[in-house]
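Box 3.1. Reading complex inputs
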Amino acid sequence: MNIGQAAKASGISEKMIRYYESIGLIAPVRRTASGYRIFSEQDVHALRFISRARDLGFSVEQMGNLLALWQDRHRASADVKAVAQAHIEELDDKIEKLQGMRRTLEHLVKHCHGDERPECPILGDLAAESLELEAGTP
Amino acid sequence: MNIGQAAKASGISEKMIRYYESIGLIAPVRRTASGYRIFSEQDVHALRFISRARDLGFSVEQMGNLLALWQDRHRASADVKAVAQAHIEELDDKIEKLQGMRRTLEHLVKHCHGDERPECPILGDLAAESLELEAGTP
DNA sequence: CTTGACCTTACAATAATGGGAAGGTTTATG
DNA sequence: CATAAACCTTCCCATTATTGTAAGGTCAAG
């Protein structure tokens, strides 16, 4: 299997496969005499593993940890669980941050007439001209 | 006011102030004979505007639009509202994506024993060895 | 007049990805 | 067999927003 086929089979672009190799996330694969990469089923399996981990939002570093655990027959599932839980917390942080932004913005949008006139509480809030809408006094 | 004071007053780092100037988000401010930047109250006001917009997750490009609207006396609030609403949709997309990841991960974590044994549904799912946990057959 | 705290520019790095150029290789077709 | 299309290779650049660092100029206080 050459890199194009491996890319299709794994859902990771050729570019990213080369990148993952260059940073050591995956080991260099075999090459033909002329330098073309040859991917075994095993190699593609690892790429699919990465693809799924990536879909779950794991960073390259976390994927490295997961791959190492995956390939370690004597791993403890507790270690895997710890990585996953840490990632859940990261996700929660991001989600909460975005939701906070969303709430504030939603509030401002609700109070904006959205017509031809220039008066606008959204700009008012950004310029802090007006009476602190929302901002933390519940 | 020099850049250090403007940074403290606005909550934007010196670095980022220079950067925002370099990319044209803010106009170049006055300089002393020796080249030090001098920030007026107006300049700092604009920086605070940017700081708040940034806290709401607006991109540099969006902040540029908002600044332009802010400084346009004849703006229509509808235009501001449109920018804000577009951003809310972006936030919603991001939130939904993260929540999807979180749900899947939570599900996997729940089924992982988290002990000394190597068996782990989290790795199993990433390797797609097992019976498609979660993945779209409700 | 020196020291330390400031300022200046310029360049590099981060994380993950895409784009393209310049050139070698394999495959299909005439 | 020759040639063209479709691959592959490496290398460099761009992205977004931000921080770090280095080398050097300036200012205020002692």
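In summary: Chain B has a mean pLDDT of 91.
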